[in-house]
Specification:
By secondary structure, this protein is α/β, with parallel strands linked by helices. Helices cover 32% and strands 24% of the residues. It contains 5 helices and 11 strands. A hairpin with a 2-residue loop joins strand 6 and strand 7. The radius of gyration is 15 Å and the shape is globular.
């Protein structure tokens, strides 16, 4: 099925399970997070697109001007395109658009956070690994009760403690129910991240 993004789709094996929107980090691709999805929610559906921006040959979901400095115009455009892709995919693959949970790492977590802030109807929840504040929309959206797990590393050289807390506060101000989890780790994903995310997701089953 052609839907603009190179992607992988796997329907839910369990009819009661959601579809996990898998969003890879810089240099990743559409198959990177498939093993993670199987660990987080066995039986869930999977929709995993590849980022359409290339940075020195590495796929990303939006452009940046420097490390930690985002091209906000491109971010807004790419966020709208990803939301439109989700809508088309839900119609084409016949899954419930209201039961999509994003699972993003790094660049993928940042565009997932941007979806929550700019296209709040697109997601029912999100697991954000190593996310930063993508942008601050005015006005803030209303996402009352939307569950968000924000899992960042205490020693992450790319995402500071202050940045993490700022994102948690921003999402909370929009109404999201934010769980902030700190890992004794840097920027790389760890087993502790996976275990905590799996337990967090199990509460929504």
């Amino acid at each position: 099925m052609e839907l603009d993004f190179i992607h992988v789709f796997e329907p839910p094996a369990d009819p009661a399970a959601p579809v996990l929107l898998l969003l890879h980090g810089t240099g990743g691709h559409e198959r990177d997070l498939l093993p993670l999805a199987a660990e987080l929610w066995p039986g869930a559906g999977v929709l995993s697109p590849r980022g359409q921006v290339l940075e020195r040959g590495m796929p990303r979901f939006f452009r940046r001007l420097a490390e930690g400095v985002f091209d906000l115009e491109d971010l807004r455009r790419r966020t709208r395109e990803l939301a439109a892709f989700l809508a088309r995919a839900s119609g084409g693959y016949r899954f419930d658009a209201g039961r999509v949970i994003a699972v993003g790492f790094s660049n993928g977590a940042n565009i997932a956070a941007s979806l929550l802030l700019l296209e709040p109807q697109a997601l029912a929840g999100a697991v954000l690994f190593r996310a930063m504040v993508p942008l601050v929309p005015e006005p803030l959206p209303a996402i009352p009760g939307t569950p968000v797990l924000l899992s960042n590393g205490r020693t992450d050289p790319l995402v500071t403690t202050e940045e993490t807390e700022r994102l948690a506060a921003l999402l909370g101000a929009a109404g999201a129910t934010v769980t902030l989890a700190w890992q004794p780790a840097g920027h790389a994903l760890t087993h502790a991240d996976v275990v905590q995310a799996r337990e967090w997701l199990s509460k929504s089953k």
